[in-house]
Amino acid sequence: MSTEGVRIRIAGVGKEFGALRVFQNIDLEIGEREIVSIVGPSGCGKTTLLRCIDGLVKPTEGEIRIDGTAVTGPPRGVAVVFQHFGLFPWKTVYENVAYGLRLAKAPKEHIRESVPRHIELVGLKGFEKAYPYQLSGGMQQRTGLARALATDPHVLLMDEPFASIDAQTREILQFELLRIWESRPMSMVFVTHSIEEAVLMGDRVVVLRGRPSSVHEVIETGLPRPRTRDVLSSPRFNEVRDHVWSRLMHEAEQAERELQEVR
Ligand SMILES: Nc1ncnc2c1ncn2[C@@H]1O[C@H](COP(=O)(O)OP(=O)(O)OP(=O)(O)O)[C@@H](O)[C@H]1O
Ligand SMILES: [Mg+2]
Predict the structure, then answer these.
(1) Ligand 1 pocket check: which of 22, 82, 208 to mutate, most ligand atoms within 8 Å of Cβ?
(2) Residue from 13, 26, 47, 60 to probe ligand 1 pocket by mutation (most atoms less than 8 Å from CB)
(3) Please, are residues 163 and 197 in contact by the beta-carbon 8 Å criterion?
(4) Protein residue closest via CA to atom 29 of ligand 1
(5) Could you list the pLDDT tens digit for every one of the 263 residues in the chain?
(6) Per-residue CA distances from 228 to 171, 177, 223 (Å)
(7) Which CATH architecture has domain 1-62+182-219+232-263?
C-alpha cells in the first residue's frame, strides 16, 4: 500500500451473471496515489471488476467504497479508458475530449481552457478538428486518455488501454502516462494482458485466478518512481516479471488439465 490513505476499498466483492459466477471474495484496497495493475486470463472478470468500481455493474455481493462512500452508481471523479478506444466516430478530437466535461455540466470557460490543455498534454495539438477515422490507433488512444484526464479524475480506470497499439507507440504511451501520473495525484487501476506492462506501471500487481476467479496473489513491484526506461533492464523488474509470469502459467496449465479431464 502506498504512503497515503486508501481511496478505493473493495470488500468481499463477487459478481454473478445468471448462473455464471465470474469472481468472488475480492478484497483489495487501492491508495490515493497508487497504481495497481490487474492481470488474469481472458474472461476472469477484469473488465467486470472495473465496471463495478465505476458503478456501471452492481456486484452480487460485497461492497466498493471510494473515499468512504459506497458506490451505487457512476461516482464523481472516476474516469475510464476503455479496452476499445470508445470514441464517438462522429465527433472531432476536440468534441470527444470535451465529452466528459459536457456530461458533467462543466462551465463553458472551463471546457475552453481544459480541452486544449489536455489535447496538448497527450501530444495531439493540431488534430483538434480531426475525426477518429483520420487518426492512427495510437492517436485514438491518446484522445481517449485526454478525454479521461480532462475531467480531472482522482480515480483512473484503465482497461487494456494500449492493447491494440503497436509495440513502439505502446512504450511511448506507457512512459507518457507515467509522466502525467507523476504530475497529478491519482489512484489508478490498470488492467492489462501484458505482464511487462503490469510490472512497469504498477506499485502492485494483482493476479486473478480460478473459475470463479479471486485474488490469487498481490505482488509489490518495489520499483523506484519516477519510472524511467532503465527500470526495464533492472534485475528487480526481471525478477517480478518472471514471478508474475510463473503465476499465470500455472493458471494456464491448470485450465489445460481441466480441459483434458472433460475430454
Ligand atoms: N453483461 C454481461 N452479461 C452476461 N455475462 C457477462 C456480461 N459481462 C461480462 N460477462 C461475462 O463475464 C465474464 C467476465 O467477462 P469480462 O469481460 O469481465 O472478462 P475479462 O477478464 O475482462 O476478459 P478479457 O481479458 O478478454 O477482456 C465472461 O465470461 C463474460 O462472458
Ligand atoms: Mg476485459
Answers:
(1) 22
(2) 47
(3) no
(4) 43
(5) 444 699 999 999 999 999 999 999 999 999 999 999 999 999 999 999 999 999 999 999 999 999 999 999 999 999 999 877 689 999 999 999 999 999 889 999 999 999 999 999 888 999 999 999 999 888 998 999 999 999 999 999 999 998 888 888 889 889 989 999 999 889 999 999 999 999 999 999 999 998 899 999 999 999 999 999 999 999 999 999 999 999 888 777 777 777 777 76
(6) 11, 12, 10
(7) 3-Layer(aba) Sandwich (3.40)
- Considering the entire predicted model, what is its pTM? 0.92
Ligand 1: residue whose CA is nearest its atom 18: 45
Distance CA 6, CA 35 (A): 12
Query: 48, 23 in Cβ contact below 8 A?
Result: yes
Q: If you measure from the C-alpha of residue 46 to the centroid of ligand 2, how many angstroms do you get, rounded to a whole number? A: 5
43 Cβ closer than 6 Å to some ligand 1 atom: yes
The strand order across the sheet containing 35-39 reads 78-81, 155-159, 187-191, 35-39, 204-209, 214-220
Residue pair 117/128 in contact by the 8 Å Cβ criterion: no
* Helix (H/G/I), strand (E/B), else coil: 9: strand
In this structure, which residue's CA is closest to atom 1 in ligand 1?
17
Name the DSSP class of 192: -
The residue behind cell 448462473 is: 19
Q: Is the CB of 15 under 6 A from ligand 1?
A: no
Q: In whole angstroms, how large is the CA radius of gyration of the chain?
A: 19
Q: Where are the domains of the chain?
A: 1-62+182-219+232-263
